[in-house]
Amino acid sequence: MVILALSLALTFFIVSNPIGNSPVILALIKDFNYAKQKQIMLREAILALALALFFQFCGEVFLGLLYVKPYTLTYCGGILLFLVAISMIFPVPPDEVKKMKQEPFFVPIATPLISGPGLMTVIMAKSQEIDSWWIITLAIILAWIPVTIALVGSPLMQQVLKRRGMVALEQLMGMILMLISVEMVVSATMKYLNA
Amino acid sequence: MSLVSLTLILFLIMDPLGNVAYFIEVLNHIPPKQQRWVIIREMFIALGVMILFYFLGDFILDFLEVSDASVSLTAGTILFLVAIKIIFPNSRNSRLQSRGDEEPFVVPLSIPLIAGPAMLATVMFYSHLIGTSVIIPIFIAWFLASMVLVMSPLLMKTLGRNGLMAIERLMGMVLILLAIQRFLEGIHLFAQNV
């Protein structure tokens, strides 16, 4: 049982991909100071956990009631990340940023980056396979702890990279995020055409 | 589609939970006693507009000779654009156009916050697709939405500004899901008729 929970936790950790995502997230919040960044990361991690647990227990019913198919979830994640990637590759001029820059809240960090459509689909699939719900809940929480550590620790990277490094990172990560988002749209289209 | 699903979908598109913060902002300078009355009046106007479009929907669609696929695609697109604005708020294009000290009348509370283009397109879409039975979910969803909005000062107090913002974003995500689903259905309908 514990081994099953651990292996599930590993799957969830890999799917939510905090280490791969942390440079992207860091590029999104690079304009805030260190203490604020840690606070944002922690809050987003908690929101992501809440969302993951919500999808474990209510995901199936919720999507069923709205007549939303699982591939729509993937489309949604893909399109949102695409829009975020565009704003990273073509950043707004600095004087305009000051006027409108709000701290990211819930979107895009908690979802679709951490608790993305991939994770939600996996959680829903696993909770159909495995009868005892507490194993999955345990696995989600087990996966969440290292995810949070990776996220809260990532602002340290900014100390290393400095200002110019962060601007370069934003461009680079915008490109990577664009790849991820297009991949999501493509795989959703595959599933849509097969359905 | 079941009654529960339709009610839930219409309730989500009215987006009362996401609109609580806007309502409070617009009604800020109005004395609390009058606020409740204004909310109820605006909700009745919104209901009137929705019912109007519910009855006119078929007529308009026939008159313009619009296909089912187009209606579905349009409903999806409008909903998508509205939801994007909720998720990525931008100070330059605020959803609240008219701001002043005068009491809000019709704009911006009834239209576009409650009975906005996305809601009206959805009502037309369902009345065209399903027929007369849609009127019941419209009423139930409207009633639930009114309940939420009348209690908005209380919700503001218990959830706080950040809590409301999280709910608003979450609702935005759900609306995007609905929008994409509607859009895909449109593509499906189109492909069937080709």
Topology:
The complex is a heterodimer of chains A (195) and B (194).
Chain A: H1 2-16, H2 18-28, H3 34-65, H4 70-89, H5 94-100, H6 109-114, H7 117-129, H8 133-153, H9 156-194
Helix pairs in contact in A: 1-8, 2-9, 3-7, 3-8, 4-9
Chain B: H1 3-14, H2 16-26, H3 32-64, H4 68-87, H5 109-114, H6 117-129, H7 135-150, H8 152-193
Explain what this protein looks like in three dimensions.
The complex is a heterodimer of chains A (195) and B (194). Chain A has 195 residues and is mainly α. Chain A has helices at 2-16, 18-28, 34-65, 70-89, 94-100, 109-114, 117-129, 133-153, 156-194. In chain A, helix 2 crosses helix 9 (156-194) and helix 3 runs antiparallel to helix 8 (133-153). The two termini of chain A are 34 Å apart. In chain B, helix 2 (16-26) packs across helix 7 (135-150), helix 2 packs across helix 8 (152-193) and helix 3 (32-64) crosses helix 6 (117-129). Chain B has helices at residues 3-14, 16-26, 32-64, 68-87, 109-114, 117-129, 135-150, 152-193. Chain B has one domain. Chain B is mainly α and 194 residues long. Chain B is globular and about 55 Å long. The chains are: A mainly alpha (195), B mainly alpha (194). The A-B interface holds A 47, 63, 65-69, 72-73, 75-76, 79-80, 83, 99-100, 102, 105-107, 111, 192 and B 1, 4-5, 8-9, 12, 84, 87-92, 162, 165-166, 169-170, 172-174, 176-178, 180-181, 184.
